[in-house]
Amino acid sequence: MFSAQVAMLRLNATVRRSMESGKNQQAIILVDDDQEDRQLFTEAAAEAGIAIRMQCIEDGDQLSELLFPSDPAAVTVQPVLIFLDLNLPAGGGKKSLEALKRSETYKRIPVVVFTTSAVKEEITWSYSTGANSLIIKPFSYHGLVDIMRVIKTYWFETVELP
User: Fold this and answer.
1) pLDDT number for residue 70
2) Residue ranges per domain, the chain?
3) Are 104 and 132 spatial neighbours (Cβ–Cβ below 8 Å)?
4) Hey, which bits of the chain come out as E strands?
5) Buried b (16+ CB within 10 A) or exposed e, 67-98
6) Residue 15: its pLDDT value, please?
7) Alpha-carbon span 115 to 70, nearest angstrom
8) In sequence order, what are the beta bridge partners of 113?
9) Of 102, 81, 91, 92, which Cα lies nearest the Cα of 30?
10) What is the residue-level pLDDT of the chain in tens, covering all 162 positions?
11) What is the DSSP letter of 32?
């Protein structure tokens, strides 16, 4: 009972922070070039009870525009967690992970590689480059909801995010 109450307090604090008005709203960023995957991810996160703003973008260029604009004052979102499809067109997933982990501003933000690839070299590369986790995309919506529940428990109820 006590741990459930603590978990709910942490989640409520995260939700409050994400709903605060102001220029830099906290959010989960999902970078995936597949529109259906983005939609399913968002729905599964909501079904799992992840109650924080979700910012979905489709490629590494959009991620760069969002987080690294020419005018730093133009940044409108503060990611608390980034989900990144490694297999974006033109190597965009790998380039994005490298850019995030080189950035003084974003290198501490957890990046979860969310991919269909189970190739050992890509898994090793992801962790070597600074990914905090790597999850193979499930084949079913039910499997995705289960993963979102684990993500909620781990990232929003157990650990302290930067």
Assistant:
1) 84
2) 2-158
3) no
4) 25-31, 54-57, 77-84, 111-115, 133-136
5) beeeeeeeeebbbbbbbbbbbbeeebbbebbe
6) 42
7) 29
8) 84, 134
9) 81
10) 444 444 444 444 444 444 444 445 789 999 999 999 999 999 999 999 998 899 999 999 999 999 998 887 888 888 999 999 998 887 789 999 999 999 999 999 999 999 998 889 999 999 999 999 999 999 999 999 999 999 999 999 999 888
11) -
Q: Which two tokens stand for residue 127?
A: 């962790």
Which residues lie across from 107 on neighbouring strands?
none
Which amino acid is located at 20 in the chain?
A: E
Q: Which amino acid is at 134?
A: L
Q: How far apart are CA 14 and CA 156, in angstroms?
A: 7
Secondary structure of residue 116 in the 3-state scheme: coil
Quick one: 2-158 is in which CATH superfamily? Response regulator (3.40.50.2300)
Nearest 5°: the CA angle 97, 98, 99 is 90
